[in-house]
Design brief:
The protein is α+β, with helices and mostly antiparallel strands. The chain has a single domain, classed as Methane Monooxygenase Hydroxylase, Chain G, domain 1. Helices cover about 40% and strands about 10% of the residues. The chain is built from 8 helices and 7 strands. The strands form 3 sheets. Strands 4-1-7 form a 3-stranded antiparallel β-sheet. Strands 2-3 form a two-stranded antiparallel sheet. Strands 5-6 form a two-stranded antiparallel sheet. Helix 1 runs antiparallel to helix 4 and helix 1 packs across helix 7.
Length: about 240
């Protein structure tokens, strides 16, 4: 807006953004069916709104500082949830989407659920890494703010996708798994190494990223079911909302 001072992309803000995007990539990398194909960060000194990211298929993203693109970016959003402008949140798309989600196929229902959980952890990783970075490596507890009314934001996507998961404590479980993984010294070192590489290069693609990623984990991130009392289970008979 006229008369407002535009935010400048300072060195501190840039390195925090690099950690944010690198954490997305590293946690996405734990899931065997998620390919991280592009990372990018704006140059130091950029003014708010000056930088843009050009997608492979010709699209352009603006008003951002950094990007982590994966093979399933927004795929689950397009399939199963939509943005409800009146409610200001993502909601389950429609009966057809839920039926597609539930029907048997080569990509089994349990695999879909695991895929959604892993994707949510990847989305949660950026903000979680920033909070850990602010703790300066200590074990201080962090508070992840998942309330968002911004369409397309990581937190808004997570809030929509967990409606497709079976148990009541899915969000808390996924937040815990994401933080637990990022606080693993080996994983955090991977985040730091990738963040430094991204800071140097500005943009990384495919093979440039692969060598920094962890080995995928089987059945990542697991299920909250064994961790909670049976009385807390959410009945799944026809109830995905």
């Amino acid at each position: 807006m006229a008369g407002e001072e535009l935010i400048t992309f300072t060195p501190d803000l840039r390195i925090k953004t690099c950690f944010h995007e690198a954490a997305h990539a590293i946690i996405h990398g734990l899931h065997p069916f998620c390919h991280v194909y592009s990372l990018a960060v704006a140059p130091e000194g950029t003014k708010e709104g000056e930088w843009e990211y050009r997608h492979r298929k010709g699209g352009v993203s603006t008003d951002i500082w950094g990007v982590c693109r994966t093979s399933d970016t927004n795929l689950l959003i397009r399939w199963f949830v939509r943005w409800d402008r009146d409610e200001g949140c993502y909601v389950i798309s429609d009966d057809d989407a839920v039926a597609h989600y539930s029907e048997p196929s080569a990509f089994t229902r349990s695999a879909r659920i695991r895929h959604i959980r892993a994707y949510c952890c990847g989305l949660l990783a950026g903000q979680t890494a920033e909070l850990i970075l602010d703790c300066d490596g200590t074990d201080d507890s962090i508070w992840l703010d998942v309330d968002s009314d911004q369409r397309g934001s990581d937190m808004a996507k997570v809030a929509g996708l967990i409606k497709l998961l079976p148990y009541r404590n899915e969000l808390g479980f996924l937040i815990e798994k994401t933080e637990e993984s990022l606080r693993d010294p080996k994983i955090w070192q991977m985040v730091a190494d990738l963040a430094q590489a991204l800071a140097r290069r500005g943009r990384m693609e495919d093979d440039e990223i692969d060598s920094y990623l962890p080995s995928p984990r089987k059945n990542w991130p697991g299920s909250p079911r064994p961790r909670i009392p049976a009385r807390w289970f959410k009945r799944r008979t026809g109830d995905l909302a």
